[in-house]
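Lab manual, section 2.4: Encoding a predicted structure.

Procedure: take the sequence of the chain (224 residues), apply the prediction step described in section 2.3, and record the output as structure tokens. A sample record is shown.
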Amino acid sequence: DTPALWIDLDAFESNALKMLTLCKGQKVRWRPHVKASKSPDLAHRLIAIGAQGITCAKVAEAEAMAAGGIDDILVANEIIGAAKITRLAEVAKQARVGVACDNIENISQISSIASKSNVTIDILVDINVGANRCGVSPEEASVLAHHVDESPGLTFRGLMGYEGHVMGMQPEDKEAASAAAAEILAQAKALVEASGLQVEILSGGGSGNYWHAASLGSINELQA
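Recorded output:
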């Protein structure tokens, strides 16, 4: 019965293996985004093939993935407001959850709700790498990272720099724009590590520029 997801599994598995091979060749972990399929079954298949975990766009997707048995989830957007953060904390009772943050007040609220819920939520400080949609400058990153590190219920895991503005560019423009985004993320990493914190995760890349993002040396987890 509808709605039903129909997929050519041979093509799916072939594409997944190609992406995994690319990531392994660049020593980058693969955390594919599931906002298109929204299918825990396909997420399990991706993880079985070799993905680190999954990326999703919002709390509802994280809830569906956790309910479907996925236990390593990154929400690659800011989650704002007590209602949604409380739902995120419930997901963290079922799975390891990371979320992007670019605001001290938001970090404090996540910390408060996580602590009251007796869970730990991983935080990636979101860096503005040129999309001008969200994220902070490299100079602001260490301030937020230390706030995370000092906040109960939170673990600072690293940085995220999603270069969404690059995805629709012409091929001849993508390489330069991807390289510029990579340089901003690398600058943020250097500043955070100079301030005394370890940056474990550097997350970014999309389907429109994955081959550039994976090869530039600025990320170690690819979201494509």
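Check your result against the sample. Helices lie at 9-25, 40-49, 59-67, 82-91, 104-116, 138-149, 171-194, 210-215.
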